[in-house]
What does this fold into?
Amino acid sequence: MEKTSSSKLLRFSVFEVDSHTGELRKSGRKVGMQEQPFRVLVALLERPGEMLSREELRDRLWSADTFVDFDSGLNKAIRKIREVLGDSAESPVFIETLPRRGYRFIAPVETVPRSTEDAQVVELSPEKPPEVLPSPAAVAGDGFSRGRVLWWAVAVVVLSGLAVWGWRASRPKLDSIAVLPIENLAADAGQEYFADGITDELITELAKIGSLRVISRTSITRFKRSHKPLREIARELGAHAIVEGTVQRSGDRVRITAQLIDAARDQHIWAQSYDETLSDILALQGRLARDIAEHVNARLTGREQELLASRRTILPEAHDAYLKGHFFWNKRSAKDARQAIQYFEKAVELQPDYAEAYAGIAEGYVVLGWDSAVLPPDDAFPKAQAAALKALDVDRSSSLAHLALMWVDLFYRWNWTEAETEAKEAIRLDPNSVTAHH
It folds into this structure.
C-alpha cells in the first residue's frame, strides 16, 4: 500500500499509532495488537474527548452479517486494548466506558502528518487552553492610573460573578429523573446484587427530594443492560434526565462513577467519581444525591438537606446482608421473602440500629401474611408491626416503616383511618412513594 500525505501518526502518553502501517508502538518499540482492537483504538483516537456510541462503532467496523456477535466482539476488543495499554475500566486513564452508550478516549492526543513528522505537533486534546488576560501591572504600564487599574480589577470580579451566575441560571431545570440500573464492574457476576442494591439506595436518596419526580425502581429495571438510545428510554419513562453509573467494590473500599444526561438534548451535564470506604457508603450516596440535585436545579428544603447530609456509618457486613435481603425481597415470592427476612435479621443482629433492615423485615412479613398468604395473619402481621415500630424507634424518618404499618392497618387491623394516616406520613417522608400514593 502506497503511503499518502494524509496518513498520520497518533500519539498519546508513551504510545504511538501508525494508521498507515497498522502498528502500535510503545516508547518506539512495536507492540502486538489484533486487527479489530486496533481499528477500534484508531476510531477512538480520531475523536478524542468525544463519545463514540456502540452503534457508530458497529456501523463503522463490523459488517452487517456479524451483528449478532457485535456486543461480545466489541467488549472483547475494548478488553484487549486495555490489556495492551495497561488501562482499566475501574480507573480509566485512556478509555472511559459510558454504560450502555459507548466509549470515549479521555487522554490528550497529538496528530502528526506522516510526510512531515518533524513539523509542529497539532494538539487534539479536548481541553481548550484558557485565554490569558493581561495582568493589572501590564495594564498600568500602558498609562493607566492606579484608580483605573482598581476599576479594571473590580470589573473583572463583577463580570466573573455574573458569568458564574449566568451559568447557574442557564442550567436547565430537569424535575423528573430516572436512575438506570448501575453497572457492576466486578469480574464476579455474583456481585450483581451489590450493584442492584446501590441503584435502589440511590433512588431512595433522590426520592427524599420533594421537588424531584423520581422514576420508580420497578419501571427502570427492564432497561438493565439495554442498548436503547437514552432519548428513547427517557421518553418511555417520562423522564427529563437520566443518571447512569458504575460501581466496583474492592476490599474495604467502593468506587461509584455517575453521570447525568439531559435526555431530550442527549447532552452530558455532569459526571463524577466517588471513592469511599464501605463503612461510609451511606454518606457517599447522600453526597451523590445532593450533587445530582444541584445539577438539575432541584430545590431542597432544610429538612431534605439534613436527611441527605447524614454522616451515619454502617458496618460493611451488615450493609452487605441488607443488600442481599433487598435482592431477594424484590423477587416477591414466598420463598424469596423468607430468604430476605433471614438476611435482614442478620443485618440487625450485626448492627442493631439498622432501621432500613427492620423495615425490610416488616415488609417481608407483609408479603408472607398477605401477598402470598403462606403464614397465618395472626402470625405474620404482629411480627411486621413489631419490626416496623422498631425501625421507627431507630429512625423516625423511615417511610418504609410507615408503609408497613399502613399494610398492617389495612389488611389485619382493618383500621382505614390509621392506614390513611400512615400512608400520608409515608408520602410526607418520601414524596415519590408510588405505593403510598395508591
User: Anything to note?
Assistant: The longest helix spans residues 146-170. Confidence is low (pLDDT under 50) at residues 1-6, 116-170.
